[in-house]
Amino acid sequence: MPTTRRGGGRPSPIAVSAVGLRKAYGDKLVLDGIDLHIPTGSVFALLGPNGAGKTTAVKILSTLITADAGDLHVGGHDLTADPQSVRAAVGVTGQFSAVDSLITGEENMLLMADLHHLSKSEGRRVSAELLERFDLAEAAKKPASTYSGGMKRRLDLAMTLVGSPRIIFLDEPTTGLDPRSRHNMWSIIRGLVSDGVTVLLTTQYLDEADELADRIAVLNDGKIVAEGTAEKLKRLVPGGHVRLRFTDPAAYQSAADALREITRNDEALSLTIPSDGSQRELRSLLDWLDSAGIEADELTVHTPDLDDVFFALTGPARVPNQPKGNVR
């Protein structure tokens, strides 16, 4: 199995590998030969607008549909030659819950245990442990129809974990959840990864990708237009700056006269200086301000966020000379 290095340490095996993944429906090309390499025990986020191909990629990698082309390996197994082993290694939680609302949470779990051919005693043990882990033990005997959206999502993920998958595909898992439920789900995902589980996350929530993902791929029109860490992706978009604010008009004017390449806001007594926000550049700027005797009352650093990246890479106006592929 291929490996990759994380943080300069030992190589980590690749949990999911896709090379040249292609899928079309008639004349509609949904995935145009994309490459994905996801290290074991990491969160990889696939980010993109509706119709970009995110869900199609998840369905292919979880064996729900077949690809037209591509060299695909999941959990060390060839997706084409050994799909059964792939199914045994993965769990899938979609944006639409698989929970049966007509039966209780516990019955949903036991049904899933039966599907995984667990003995009755083992199924009850695993179900009880997962219901406790996901804070659903008190509601276990209640019909799932009485559960809140967040509870149903937690139950859905708990059901996915009955088979102890080491690779989990989460297709927009927090769609429709309130902020508290979303944050609870994030904590659960972090816990899974700390146990060595690999997560492929598709989402339209940019803060979700920023919070959870080790690496992010931006998918647009069936192609990966950029890939890298959140911080690397943010640097693709221009607009980072340092803002100096003053309360004394004389100090403001003195700083404006001394500094070059600035944008003035005379009403707010603020100066904007282009900056990529890196530690080296900030240190250099602070040293220069000290040497020039300029002391602002407030200094703030503004860098592009993933919203800026998303709109720049998937909108009509793309970033000029924006590099494609991996961002290192």
What does this structure look like?
This protein is an alpha/beta fold and 328 residues long. Among the domains are: 3-99 and 165-181 and 193-234, Rossmann fold; 241-302, Alpha-Beta Plaits. Helix content is 34%, strand content 27%. The strands form 3 sheets. The protein has a 6-stranded mixed β-sheet, with helices on both faces. Strands 1, 2, 3, 5 and 6 form a 5-stranded antiparallel β-sheet that branches. A hairpin with a 2-residue loop joins strand 10 (215-220) and strand 11. Helix 3 (105-115) runs parallel beside helix 5 (149-160) and helix 5 packs parallel to helix 6. The chain is elongated, with a radius of gyration of 24 Å. Residues 3-9 and 317-328 have low confidence and may be disordered.
Write a concise synopsis of the structure shown:
By secondary structure, the chain is of the alpha/beta class. The chain is 34% helix and 27% strand. A hairpin with a 2-residue loop joins strand 5 and strand 6.
Any chance you could write out the topology, listing elements then pairs?
Elements: E1 3-5, E2 11-25, E3 28-39, E4 43-47, H1 54-61, E5 69-74, E6 77-78, H2 83-89, E7 90-93, H3 105-115, H4 120-133, H5 149-160, E8 167-171, H6 179-194, E9 198-203, H7 206-212, E10 215-220, E11 223-228, H8 230-234, E12 241-245, H9 249-258, E13 263-265, E14 270-274, H10 279-291, E15 298-302, H11 306-314
Parallel strand pairs: 4-9, 4-10, 7-8, 8-9
Antiparallel strand pairs: 1-2, 2-3, 2-5, 5-6, 10-11, 12-14, 12-15, 13-14
- Text of the CATH class of the domain at 3-99 and 165-181 and 193-234: Alpha Beta
What would you give as the CATH superfamily of the domain at 3-99 and 165-181 and 193-234?
P-loop containing nucleotide triphosphate hydrolases
- CATH topology descriptor of the domain at 3-99 and 165-181 and 193-234: Rossmann fold
Report the sheet-strand fraction: 25-35%
Order of helices and strands: EEEEHEEHEHHHEHEHEEHEHEEHEH
Neighbour order of strands in the largest sheet: 7-8-9-4-10-11
Task: Give a short account of the largest sheet.
Answer: 6 strands, mixed
Measured distance between first and last alpha carbons = 22 Å
C-alpha Rg (nearest Å): 24 Å
Tell me the number of strands. 15
Mean pLDDT: 87
Structure class = alpha/beta
Amount of helix: 25-40%
- The CATH architecture of the domain at 3-99 and 165-181 and 193-234 comes to 3-Layer(aba) Sandwich
Low-confidence sequence ranges: 3-9, 317-328
Shape: elongated
Count of individual helical segments: 11
